[in-house]
Known about the structure:
- By secondary structure, the protein is of the alpha+beta class.
- The protein folds into two domains: 123 residues, MutM-like, N-terminal (N-terminal domain of MutM-like DNA repair proteins); 141 residues, Helicase, Ruva Protein, domain 3 (Orthogonal Bundle).
- The chain has six helices and 13 strands.
- Bound molecules: zinc ion (ZN).
- The site of zinc ion has 7 residues, from loops.
Amino acid sequence: MPELPEVETVRRTLNQLVAGKRIERVTVSLPRIIQRPKAPDEFAALLVGRTIQSVERRGKFLRIMLDGLVLVSHLRMEGRYGVYDRKEPPELHTHVVFHFSDDTELRYKDVRQFGTMHLFDWGEELTLPPLNKLGMEPLDDAFTLQAFKKKLAKRTTKIKPLLLNQEYVVGLGNIYVDEALFTAGIHPERTADSIKPAEWARLHQAIIATLGRAVEAGGSSIKSYVNGQGEMGMFQHELLVYGRKNEPCSRCGQFIEKLVVGGRGTHICTSCQPVPRLSKAGKLSRK
Length: 287
Ligand code: ZN
């Protein structure tokens, strides 16, 4: 599933390709992608004659800003956008097509068919599902160490599922949580309330640095991810633990291990991220 760096890369490329284009017609061939309004005909009719102003992002959602309306789109597992000339035959699994007045088309293709689209009036999208409960944007200035700790530090649950929960911090998925926890030297099964101040500071920095570098590299192309221009990201070559089971840790040489945390495959170095153990006092500690 695309995470913040991949969605941000799609946003940037799409913004260059579609901003300023006017929608002449919309074709929906898989109604279930359209969540709001429920009727695909109504969805299509609302978009006719609108011009795309820009493409924005909130968490892992794209916000396609039109005059008066906002199209909120989630790619889920394998959703993809691409801009094509009208004459090019559509690829298999193309489910929604936005026909522009300049003979080009924005096509949404989704092999797994899990993607969603919601249409809102301007501003309304932030007050209703699916965007209304989203947490802090980790690449915004408002994501300070203090704000981060305030949201998470007192929780008694494991840190990895907390970081995956989009109600606290948005944009992190399985890849970048593993990378950030490794960079910070924190075991994914540590409970948030066992994490020390210096570790919070390292984790906060690691999240910002990892996501920032991944955005610069155009995201990670692990399965089928490509940007809005059909290009692969490059950050998969820079991943330190994710997908590197049985390879030596870049920091200490010990082999990377894979375990399951909160139902998710998790990559760690047990030397750089010590396993939490019960101390004599019965409290969790690092050693
Ligand atoms: Zn290591």
